[in-house]
Queue: 4 jobs
Job 1
Amino acid sequence: ADVVVTVTLENDAPVLNFNQQALHYSENDVATQIDGGAFLSDPDGVYEWSGGTLIVQLTGNAEASDEISFGTYGSGYVHLFEGVLYWGATKIGTLSQTSGVVTGGAALEITIAEGTPTTQVQHIIRSILYRTTSEDPGIGDRTVTITATDSSGASVADTRTVKVENINDAPEIANVTNGARNYYEHGSSNQNNDAIAVNNAGATLTDADWTGGSLSFKISDNAENPDQLSLNTTTLGTLHIDGTDLLDGANVIGTVSASGGIVTGDTALTVTLTQAATIQQVQTALRAVQFRST
């Protein structure tokens, strides 16, 4: 007797493997491949991707300054033009964002063109990049998830962890004029620089990641014992000095190295700020330094 064997084809899920070691990314690095060695296959054949999709998304600890984007990988055969991916001159996919860039936790979706083989889809995956544009990024580990869905609807997802290193940026002082200031004997206290004068308080202090620190002022040349450096209490505005404490209202935001905030000769006047001090309060203290000779 004849035996009839009925074979039912089932769509097998694709296979996607990422490097399971974390990707290390430092603040101000260029956009970096999430995984230049990612592996993709489909047991049902190399042409199982027509109309399939790749979805790339930050699914853990995303910040508004985080970016997922598309770059050129390897030989450069995969390239982006006006939201369309090409392998050489052949269209292989379409991006949900024409620029190829999404931010925060938004998803970047790539629809695979008809006839695109697995090797080219794998190249697309390897061309996905991460970066942060922040000068003070959070250090929480980012989780990047890529989901690959083939033309029959079977899907697979894998993740890679991105460890973000926050770099301490140096503060910047600007609008401080280097020209000489005239001081007249027996005159009242004068600001030591026009750019931070009471009536022209243009000096600026910026720091993207300020969390406490210090200001130090010193007469570094030709100091004499009668010379004084102090903080102008009028310019301090809501800030005031009580002994060695620098306060804003009732809140201590720092200490000064000398009682009353006055030093003589070549002694440095140092203002040590707490983490509670804002960059605006520190800038106010910067603008308030003054010189006189007794």
Job 2
Amino acid sequence: QTSNDPTPAQRHRCVAAAVPPKSPSSARIHQHHRSRRDSRLSGDDRGPGRGGRLPRPPHRAQPVDLQSIFIMGSSAQNRASDVDLWVCCESHLHPALWPKVHAVNHWARTHGVEMQTYLVDPQKFQLGHPIPGCPTPTLLLDEFYRRATLIAGRYPLWWLVPPDAEYRYQSLHDHLIDHRFIERDAVIDFGPVSGFPDSELAKAAETELARALQTPHKSLLKLKLVDVYARTPNEPPISTQYKPAVYAGEQDPDALDAYGCCCNTWKAIAPAAVNSTNCSCSGDCSYAGSPTVPK
């Protein structure tokens, strides 16, 4: 490069001077092409033929295999009480989950807790299929609604049906879902508590008699409940009587306790079948770690 050659800055000024300025129309065309190029790079959803990609499908949440987890409890719970855990999912997942269930139960025993974990398919349970290890599904559902605490997942749709509308359970269920008052995936449905079959009451009594040697106080409470249900088949179950107290805002744990509700029900709907002696005995069994059975 000689001293007479232009510097790079001089060459740039010469080229800029030789190029005529853009007209307003050409500037708009240039801006249009640049916008189309930017939309293609950014994946603008303008559809084919308009400088964009095909519209992306809406985001869908991945299906969750486990629907809900519940734990059962009452104010009579103590260190020696067992713990019932419900893991709700479809039945085709049960074979893969059973090894994990056994591992969880074993882990709980190493910490001094006797845990019973049940795998529950809500649809099959609603059709009357018993849970493995429990041949009395209707009585179990009645107890579930009185004792279950939601740990994670969907809440029971049963709580959205008013106490005086249990007979319209299915129509209210369809109304809430079809009119989108609630999301279908936000609730879990076990259905209402229907009448208790005589065969199920007899099976429950037989089971509690066999358990009475290990847990006499608990077996006595459940035997009295079976007795009341058998004597008063037209009376609503305890869970249906329990729901109005929750709707009314009751917060006293004794008034909402599952076994306390049993005692109150015996006194209210079967006074002739429940005398003062066995009422006192049942009350002791409800709140004592070891029952005080009167002589």
Job 3
Amino acid sequence: RDRLVKKLDDYWVAEATPGRHGSVIGRPKKICTEIQLALTLRWLAGGSYLDITEIYSVHDSTFYNIIARVVPAINKVLPEWRLVTALKNPQAHHDLDRLAAGFSRRTNGFLNKVIGAIDGILIPIAAPTGEDPTNARTYFCRKGFYCINVQGICNAEYEVIYASIGLCPGSTHDSFAWRTDEMYAFINGEGIDDHGASKKTNAMLRIGGYHLIGDDAYMACHLLATPWPGRFDDKKDGESAKLCYNYWHSCARMSIEQTFGQLSRKWLILKRPYAGSLVRTSCSPGIFTSSQLV
């Protein structure tokens, strides 16, 4: 946490703008960075604003001003998604091999080129207002509440290495939500304005055999392995191999579901519906890189 406090201090100094009489505009006066960060983390973990304002002796408006400043600042100072960093690295295959090694250990060497497990998580939001009713209905999911669809990718150690925070409506199918994401276009060689980096990354992944794994909601392709469809009997010839594959595939894929479960228990704000600008706060990259916050 001390490192994050230092990064926030440096960020606010760099972003501060001179005000009247030489004053500095950038963060609340008389409240140190440690208190602001502690207040924000407590709120992200599910604390009530009533308790937090009482504990830290701040006014309600000051509390929300701090939240509005600190969360974007955290998103600015945290490093890039690990998967993005790995793919941009000229020696990317070394980073990808380290990601694949985790899933290889998890499956006793059966799956040795998996670099991440992908799935979608529904983040609750308040019912959209002031929008076209038809568009508002797209946020109402099959589970009976308004939400957005966030696509996340994790490694074998339950760390989120990429998440698409694009405010995709909750009724969107996981497969479609993934296909509309920038990462999908980048690894499939369809990225634009990247000086050919997307096509080079796609070629590297295909040649190296690297791929993601997901459930049957996704479409199987060279870079995304899904379960073998159907039910199988291990006593029938030719079906035992398919059953074995599905078993180890499930062992590796469940890591993303466990990751989402850990995040939801740690950052209870992910279960609370919010409206307005707090929608982005409730699914900020800072939460999905939670291991770097504490």
Job 4
Amino acid sequence: HDPGIDFSLKGSGDLHSKYPAVQCDISINNIQPNSLHLAKTNIAYSGNINIDFPSTDPDNLQGKLLIEKSVIVTDSQKIAVDSIKLIAGKTDTSQYLRLYADVIQAQLQGKYKLTQLASVVNQLINPYFSTTTSDSNNVKAAPYNFTVNVDVTNKPLLKTLAPTLKRLDPIHFAANFNSEKGWNADLVSPMIIYGEDRVQNFQVHVKPSSKSLDIQTSVQQFKSGKSLALYQTSFNTSIADNKINFILNVHDKASKEKYNVTGLFQQPVKNKYVLSLKPDDLLLNYQKWQIDKNN
């Protein structure tokens, strides 16, 4: 008997197919990774885990994972975690993967293959800015049409993990991906106050078109203690033909323009990158600057 690990497991499975069916219940009375030489810090975990997947085929995943009564104990605190549930399944027209946890809820739904999501992400960027070193690395993904939604809310667990977190308004991320019609994504975070740091109305909007990938990033106010304060800050980019045109614009508390930096980041040949600033619009700490056009 090892005092660093104490659990019971009851389960069954069907191993006749390539992707076996799995069902098991795990009751963990105590796991101490440091006693097992898996971690240097003192930490202990207990909880119940239920796994029930009639199909473990990642492209046809069906089943559920349920983690309940989790308790994490460290030298300084004891953290009770609400249930964590992961559900995978399908309807007549689509499939889905849903996560329900204490501070986060997320859903992937539509027509997709989990094994090809990395290729999908790569193909979202490559038409505008090549990220692969060889065309042979491009794996063509099957037709897809799916959405991703993620919501983060302020719950007591966050306060336990981050004691100096004073405020976190609900954060929302939503994206649509369609192999024929393109894609878009939006992130909105109304307010985060962490210690003496403050981020107000942070937003990211991604809007691809047939010619360019446009990304608009803005924050109404960013403060870090008493040393840094930014207002009405925006960072907008337009990506096309292995070139990233960008504009950084910052105002002061009175809405007067304080910084403006316009530039170009490009990849003239694969794995070679060039950064240059546009001299006509350079503003640093209210002062206009003149720089060489061939910088």
